[in-house]
Design goal:
About 45% of the residues lie in helices and about 10% in strands. The relative contact order is 0.06. The chain binds adenosine-5'-triphosphate and magnesium ion.
């Protein structure tokens, strides 16, 4: 008969859960604190521990560490009412058998208990317990937000893979948080104190990418006037994140494969092989299998990459996470924009929950930012949210700059600090930026500002092009060309 120790400071839970386990034929012992649990383990050597995280006294995680120092292969299931990422990652990393959110369904926990007991000792990747990890967990807060089952699995996968030296491939649709996962893997690794270097394989042209990654010797090509050390070499004993690896050109794939096999790099035009000690992480939103079939991705590299994969679910498959993320982004964005978060109406939240989010978490964050920018203190409603989600925000549909500068939009007047309400120009620029989002955004924003400036000059001069040109310091033909370029049709033309 297996003996199970329940550790929780909630006496009622201990009693009712204990009864259930006894009815299942287990021998049950209980402890009301982490310290008592540690003493129980030392005295009675249970087969399994099921333990809460937040208790008075030491946390369940700390208690688990002590228990497992005393009994190295003791399986521990952690229960918590707070689905924080850090707790899930830490618990798994520190060897918890599994992690379950309260309230849980009895069949679920029983299944876990049987698995844990059956498995006996599991092969687990372990690092020596570093006290720094606990401090980190506190200061980092919950970087990755999510309580859905799908995300809990991701956190566990991070916890298992992080402390190993394994090459990890992170897969998921655009905007699902692949870069954030890469950072979590690094932060929870033994290389956390060493650099984290991101290389975006799609943003850089092939020749530059090669130089960027591997460096070059003086004279390696025209323009190589001095030796340059590549990013991989620069990373020291750190972690290199190859983002969008699915888009990496074939010749560079070959070099990466060699790096993985031989742990050496060769600078362009160089003769010596330089030993490097980096951990590689990679991400892609591409269909790598198709790329392999089409000969765009090396099969041998593909097989190496896919050994340890963390798959990120699309946002629409993360039940309940949209509301959680919305809260997270609203408070973070409001803080960044130095404003009070106005909150969301229940209808707006329903709308968010029902939206399919093809752009995933990034799209949600952008939509909330847009909604915040245009909010005027009242909670964001469904209609405002709908507008912020839709591509309705194209600049042509926006009021001109002069409308944004109406006194009513100026907020509390001077002297009240740089809140967004006081700074419609900034809101306008942000909107233009979000609309273009990466896609020649800089030019797009400058165009938007240029268009607004001309519209304003025409407004001030009652549509008189000659005076508007003077005001702007432009020649009349230049102004007329710009009016045409920006499609500014004057309805009231007083010459
Ligand atoms: N679970 C999450 N909790 C909090 N923020 C998140 C989460 N997932 C993603 N984000 C945020 O959403 C944005 C997009 O995430 P990220 O850049 O990691 O996505 P990605 O998968 O790398 O996308 P792409 O394929 O387009 O590069 C970032 O601002 C990130 O901080
Ligand atoms: Mg990315």
């Amino acid at each position: 008969m297996a003996q199970i120790l329940i550790v929780d400071d909630d006496a009622q839970l201990r009693q009712s859960f204990g009864k259930i386990l006894e009815a299942e034929g287990f021998e049950v012992r209980t402890a009301g604190s982490g310290e008592a649990g540690v003493a129980e383990v030392a005295a009675n050597a249970p087969d399994l521990v099921v333990m809460d995280v937040r208790m008075t006294g030491i946390t369940g995680i700390a208690a688990m560490q002590r228990m497992r120092t005393a009994v190295p292969n003791l399986p521990v299931i952690i229960m918590t009412a707070y689905g924080g990422t850090e707790t899930a990652i830490e618990a798994t990393k520190l060897g918890a058998f599994d992690y379950i959110l309260k309230p849980f369904d009895i069949p679920d926990i029983l299944r876990l208990i049987h698995q844990a007991l059956d498995a006996g000792r599991l092969a687990r990747a372990h690092v020596a317990i570093d006290p720094k990890d606990e401090a980190d967990a506190e200061t980092q807060g919950d970087a990755l937000v999510g309580q859905s089952r799908a995300m809990q699995e991701v956190f566990k996968a991070i916890g298992r893979a992080a402390p190993t030296e394994a090459l990890v491939l992170i897969r998921g649709e655009s905007g699902t948080g692949k870069e954030l996962v890469a950072r979590a893997l690094w932060q929870h690794s033994a290389r956390a104190a060493k650099p984290f270097v991101v290389i975006n394989c799609v943003a850089i042209p092939e020749t530059l990418l090669e130089a960027e990654l591997f460096g070059y010797e003086k004279g390696a090509f025209t323009g190589a006037s001095a030796r340059r050390v590549g990013k991989i070499e620069q990373a020291g004993r750190g972690t290199v994140f190859l983002d969008e690896i699915g888009d990496m050109p074939l010749p560079i794939q070959a070099k990466i494969l060699r790096l993985l096999q031989e742990k050496q790099v060769e600078r362009l035009g160089g003769r010596e092989l330089i030993p490097v000690d980096v951990r590689i992480l990679a991400a892609t939103n591409r269909d790598l299998e198709a790329a392999v079939a089409e000969g765009r991705f090396r099969e041998d590299l593909y097989y190496r990459l896919k050994v340890v994969t963390v798959g990120l679910p699309p946002l629409r498959a993360r039940e309940g996470d949209v509301a959680l993320l919305a809260r997270h982004f609203l408070s973070r964005l409001a803080r960044e924009m130095d404003m009070q978060s106005p909150g969301l109406t229940p209808e707006a939240l329903d709308l968010l929950a029902a939206h399919p989010w093809p752009g995933n978490v990034r799209e949600l964050a952008n939509a909330l930012q847009k909604a915040l920018i245009f909010s005027r203190g009242a909670p964001i409603g469904a209609e405002e949210m709908r507008q912020a989600i839709g591509k309705s925000g194209s600049l042509d549909g926006l009021p001109g700059l002069h409308n944004q500068l109406e006194p009513s939009a100026r907020g509390n007047g001077p002297g009240t600090g740089p809140s967004l309400g006081d700074n419609p120009l900034r809101a306008f620029i942000r909107q233009a930026l979000l609309d273009a989002a990466g896609d020649a955004a800089y030019e797009h924003v400058l165009d938007a500002v240029a268009r607004g400036t001309i519209a304003e000059a025409l407004e001030i001069t009652g549509g008189n092009r000659t005076r508007a040109a003077k005001l702007l310091g432009l020649s009349r033909p230049t102004l007329i060309a710009k009016i045409e370029k920006y499609g500014l049709k004057m309805t009231t033309q007083v010459q």
